[in-house]
Amino acid sequence: MHAPKPAAKAPGFSLVNQPYLLLSLTSLFWASNIIVGRYVVGQIPPVTLSLIRWGGAFLLVLPLAWPHLKQDGPVIRRHLGILLLLSITGITAFNTMAYWALEYTQALNGLLLQSSTPLFVALWSLILLGVRLTLAQALGVLVSMAGVVTILLRGDLAALAAIEFNRGDVIFVIAFAIFGFYTTLSVKSPPIHALSFLAFTFGCGGVFLIPFVAWEIAAGRVMVVNAESVLAAAYIVVFPATLAYFCYNRGIQLIGANRAAPFSHLIPVFGSIMAIGLLGEEARLFHLVGYALVFSGVIVAARAPAQRKA
After folding, report:
1. Which one of 24, 92, 94, 220 is CB 3.0 to 4.6 Å from 179, fit for a cystine?
2. Per-residue b/e over 224-258, b at no fewer than 16 CB within 10 Å?
3. Residue 285 in contact with residue 50, Cβ under 8 Å?
4. Cα 180 to Cα 80, 124, 126, 232, distances in angstroms
5. For residues 141 and 259, what is the distance between their CA atoms, to the nearest angstrom?
6. What is the residue extent of each domain of the chain?
7. How far apart are CA 67 and CA 78, in angstroms?
8. What local confidence, expressed as pLDDT, does residue 306 receive?
9. Whole-angstrom Cα distance, residue 79 to residue 309?
10. Three-state DSSP state, 14
11. Cα–Cα distances in angstroms (integers) from residue 159 to residues 110, 149, 207, 277, 281, in the given order
């Protein structure tokens, strides 16, 4: 089976036609999501945080999406099955499991395990679409992954032996496998407006979370309402949810899942830059080496494969 054709670009320069920029912004927003999600552990239970994230994102995009939802209604009904599957995997399951995992493990472990996302995307692309990684894409993924490890281990491979893995890490691996499935399957999403897609998946993903939130509350786990938790939740709604998913979905439409997946390796790059700029962490040689490896790998993996001559 041939790979799906990338979405057509409109003439002229437009932000929505710049896949590399869109996917880089996605990684920036998701880097902050891991930090904020870890920060509010103990204040906002994981399923509640996930419902706030997607319920808030749904309300945010609904006024803009409503005209498109009415126009796309017949197409949505014809492709209801795949849209529900994308909502459950990419919205309900993945994010909730990621927040749940952060209750048991450190953000460092999550960032390390997140570097496996391109591998899961490659596996699902082969299973679902029959699309194989090119040699350049495989090389780029490995190089950028080496950069991720260099940054997170601070240039000391011996530190890998000191990392303790627990059930939170197992939950993370399952979550990233699910997200790889969502990323791959999203190239088969029906031809509806981007805002229709966001509103539908955000809304359905949130609805599926309601029974689990009720169970969480019945178990005595409720949100601590204060300025910190409210601001953190508002930030997550706007940036890691609404804007990040718009950028990510559009980036996949433009260049495909296998070329888009390695951009997830920019997440620890942005995370470490934030630590240097906001927390006063000292810039070290291993940062520069890691950045160079990640950027080199991403550039190689994201390049369009050369077309064979007839």
Report:
1. 94
2. eeeeebeebbeebbebbbbbbbbbbbbbbbbbbbb
3. no
4. 21, 7, 12, 26
5. 10
6. 19-133+164-256
7. 18
8. 59
9. 36
10. coil
11. 16, 10, 42, 24, 19
The residue assigned the tokens 């291993």 is 286
Q: Is 152 exposed, middle or buried (0-12, 13-18, 19+ CB in 10 A)?
A: buried
**Which amino acid is residue 90, in one-letter code?**
G
Handedness of CA 180, 183, 186, 187 (dihedral sign): negative
> How many C-beta neighbours within 10 Å does residue 65 have?
22
The two structure tokens encoding residue 112: 């390390």
The answer to whether 69 touches 196, Cβ cutoff 8 Å, is: yes
- CA dist 263 and 252 (Å) reads 11
Residue 283: how many CB atoms within 10 A of its CB?
12
Rounded-to-10 torsion of CA 230, 60, 180, 133 = -130
How far is residue 114's CA from residue 31's CA, in Å, rounded to a whole number? 11
Q: Measured in Å, how far apart are the chain's first and last C-alpha atoms?
A: 18
- Closest of 215, 170, 181 to residue 88, by C-alpha: 181
Per-10-residue mean pLDDT for the chain, 310 residues long? 46 76 93 80 89 96 96 96 96 90 77 82 91 86 86 72 76 92 93 95 96 94 91 94 94 90 88 70 77 87 61
